[in-house]
Amino acid sequence: MNIKPLYLISGLLLGGILLTGCGQAVSATGSKESAGAATAIENCGRTLSFPATPQRAVAMTPGQSEMLVRLGQADKVVAEAQSKGRELMPELADLGAAKQLSEQGPPSREVLLGVAPDLVYSPTSYEFTAEQGFASIDQLKAAGAEAYVATAGCPERRSSAEVTDLLTDLKNMGTVFGAAEQAATLTGEAQGTLDDVKRRVSGLTRPSVAELFVEGNTIAAIGAGIEYNMIELAGGDNVFSPDDKAFAQFFSSVISPETLVAKNPQIIVFTTIDKAHEQATLDYLRTKFAQLDAVKNNRLVAIDSDDVMPGTWGNIRAVEQIAKGLHPNAF
After folding, report:
1. Where are the transmembrane segments (predicted)?
2. The pTM is what?
3. Over the range 124-133, which residues count as b (16 or more CB within 10 Å of their CB) and which as e?
4. C-alpha span between 192 and 199 (Å, rounded)
């Protein structure tokens, strides 16, 4: 199986959250309760210890950068990775201290350790795979840095993750940075958006939905994990599920064109790298699957792959965007 499509689907490789789509400003400053105090948190079955507030945080995707900026910690971000060629957020660029370490994949061990981080915030544990040439969690620990993996991206959680796992990340990051008040405010905003979507789609007929990522002629489908939960919250019924054998061990699986035709979803949600990839996917679906109800009725909903990365504010945006695509008359 080609791992590249699955890696892109999960959003691990892709950065550059578009703040213009969130409808609210991102604050670069926030409360700093207990600044400098030693603290410890639980993350992916590990205890992370911080003798003081991190001062040199690395965001392993721009989505993690956005989370730290929203928490008022822009001045603590020294670097981000997997930028996908996009510029730093203005809140980071204006400070002039943060650098971009990589574009289309995690930075090498040497590059990451070279910026001397004391915290590395990542969407999944893949970014710490030593066999791929990345700095491992143990190597970072030895260099004085803790590695935090988004709750929805923990290995044991990846296939059963939910969008609300983000609230755990907000609480944890609020604790680590002494920004509990800001974290509570963001938690309220996130829950408020999810509650609004739930209210709007409640009682409506739930359309059948396939969530896909297309690369060339390869089609990968989502059948579990946080992306699966996004469809649920948005008021749709995914044609693939964790009960399917193909998704028993992993949230995504390459499928055949015949499988997609047999499922014949009413709506297709597909993740995109950029506008060119979005158009290529649309062209492919319209050319190869003209017989599908979703294609015939032009019920094709594009989602930025950045927004399905675990532990990012994009998770909230994606639920709302998908819901609008599934139930346009409810918004």
Report:
1. none
2. 0.84
3. bbbbbeeeee
4. 10
For 190-199, b/e burial (b = at least 16 CB within 10 A) is beebbeebee
Vertex 154, ends 132 and 145: CA angle to 5°? 65
**Other Cβ atoms within 10 Å of 207 Cβ, number:** 18
List the end-to-end C-alpha distance of the chain, in Å, as a whole number: 40
What are the angstrom distances between the C-alpha of 59 and each of 52, 68, 69, 179, 294?
18, 8, 10, 17, 37
Query: What are the pLDDT digits (tens) for 213-270?
Result: 999 999 999 999 999 999 999 999 999 999 898 898 889 999 999 999 999 999 999 9
Listed residue (269, 305, 308) closest to 104, CA to CA:
305
Tokens for 256, please give them.
């055949």
Sketch out the chain's domains with CATH numbers. 25-161+168-195 (3.40.50.1980), 205-330 (3.40.50.1980)
